[in-house]
């Protein structure tokens, strides 16, 4: 989650659900992908400031649960439009990188048009159906059964199983949308 694109998307996505203070936002981000890509305060708060300067997020004070006041973040109209734009037309990396795609998928239901949702899912399915591998021999993808190294073979078997599950889900959901 350290890269700017998916951090921006997830901040906008969570704030689209409801206003929240920075600590709560950080906890939601950690729950989504923190085990894979932790978000530090040194990345989160500058990202929030950049979004605020662009007019995508507003900050206001509210009474805290104790005596201290807290800063609450709210998505602006421009922030919602930015979120919808990122969801409607994601970058290629948001489609090809599994963690980034899952962040995108987390908020895809915010797109009101089912056809827009289907186009995003179709892009991911097309990406997953292209022949690929972690390892190549003579310019061709190595199949799990042809890999002599047991750990590489394990990687290929796990990737094949999770890829099949994702492709099956995408096909089922596309059928429902289309």
Strand content: 5-15%
CATH hierarchy class name of the largest domain: Mainly Alpha
Alpha carbon gyration radius: 19 Å
CATH superfamily of the largest domain: Winged helix-like DNA-binding domain superfamily/Winged helix DNA-binding domain
CATH-derived topology of the largest domain = Arc Repressor Mutant, subunit A
Say how many strands there are: 5
List the domain count as a whole number. Answer: 2
Largest sheet entry: 3 strands, antiparallel
N- to C-terminal distance: 31 Å
Stretches where pLDDT is under 50 for at least 5 consecutive residues are none
List the helices and strands and how they pair.
Blueprint: H1 4-17, E1 20-21, H2 22-34, H3 41-53, E2 57-63, E3 69-75, H4 77-88, H5 92-96, H6 98-107, H7 114-129, E4 136-137, E5 140-141, H8 150-177
Antiparallel strand pairs: 1-3, 2-3, 4-5
Task: Describe the protein in words.
With 178 residues, the chain is mainly alpha-helical. It has two domains: 4-91, Arc Repressor Mutant, subunit A; 131-177. Helices cover 62% and strands 11% of the residues. The chain is built from eight helices and five strands; from the N terminus they run αβααββααααββα. The chain has helices spanning 4-17, 22-34, 41-53, 77-88, 92-96, 98-107, 114-129, 150-177, and strands at 20-21, 57-63, 69-75, 136-137, 140-141. A three-stranded antiparallel sheet has the order 1-3-2. A two-stranded antiparallel ribbon has the order 4-5. Helix 1 packs across helix 3. The two termini are 31 Å apart. The model has no long low-confidence stretch (mean pLDDT 89).
């Amino acid at each position: 989650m350290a890269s700017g694109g998916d951090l921006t998307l997830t901040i906008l996505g969570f704030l689209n659900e409801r206003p929240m203070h920075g600590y709560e936002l950080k906890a939601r981000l950690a729950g989504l992908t923190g085990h894979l890509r932790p978000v530090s305060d040194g990345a989160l708060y500058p990202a929030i400031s950049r979004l605020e300067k662009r007019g995508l997020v507003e900050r206001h004070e509210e009474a805290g649960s104790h005596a201290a006041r807290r800063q609450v973040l709210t998505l602006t109209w421009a922030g919602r439009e930015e979120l919808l734009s990122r969801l409607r037309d994601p970058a290629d990396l948001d489609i090809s990188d599994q963690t980034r795609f899952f962040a995108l998928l987390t908020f895809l239901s915010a797109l009101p048009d089912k056809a827009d949702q289907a186009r995003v899912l179709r892009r991911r399915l097309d990406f997953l159906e292209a022949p690929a591998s972690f390892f190549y021999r003579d310019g061709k993808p190595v199949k799990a059964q042809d890999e002599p190294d047991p750990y590489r073979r394990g990687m290929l078997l796990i990737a094949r199983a999770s890829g099949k599950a994702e492709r099956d889900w995408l096909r089922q959901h596309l059928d429902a949308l289309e």
